[in-house]
Amino acid sequence: MARVLTVSRVTVRPGCEDAYLQTVHALAALCRSRGQRLWVFRSTSDPAGFLEFSESPTHASHRSRASRTDYELKLERKLRELATYAPDAWDLWEEVPAPAGAEPGEGGGAHDDLADE
Questions:
Q1: Pairing verdict, β 4-12 and 83-85
Q2: How would DSSP label each residue in 66-111?
Q3: Mind listing the pLDDT tens digit for each residue in 70-86?
Q4: Assuming Cys at both sites, which of 13, 18, 24, 53 could form a disulfide with 39, CB separation 3.0 to 4.6 Å?
């Protein structure tokens, strides 16, 4: 089964950046222990703007769907107190595997057509 991902656009409330980053990184550590990943990126043009990327191996194990401990639920609630999440923040995106023959070096793949151009 393909990996799944959410990309959440987040706006952190004024004065809450340190608490937000501490909370999201605490949650990221818990995610790693469950085979999930959580990355945070800051906007270069909006200091209050962040992106959270949450990845898991399956739909059922994703941060937005999996059962969580009381502590994880507490961290998620705290994040929502510190920041506003875009309406589509929890849309799941599924990994698309490369088509057969598209891997570099296999010959007969998609790259061969480009070599002649």
A1: antiparallel
A2: S---HHHHHHHHHHHHHEEE-TTTT--EE--PPPTT-STTSSSSHH
A3: 999 999 999 999 999 99
A4: 53
Query: In a 3-state reduction of DSSP, which class is residue 8?
Result: strand
Task: Please name which of 32, 12, 30 lies closest in space to residue 21, comparing C-alpha atoms.
Answer: 12
CA-to-CA separations, 94 to 31, 45, 77, 104, 116, in angstroms, rounded: 18, 28, 25, 23, 33
DSSP labels, 13-60: PTT-HHHHHHHHHHHHHHHHHTT-EEEEEE-SS-TTEEEEEEEESSST
User: Are 20 and 83 in contact, with CB atoms under 8 Å apart?
Assistant: yes
Task: Write out pLDDT tens, residues 31-55.
Answer: 998 889 999 999 999 999 999 999 9
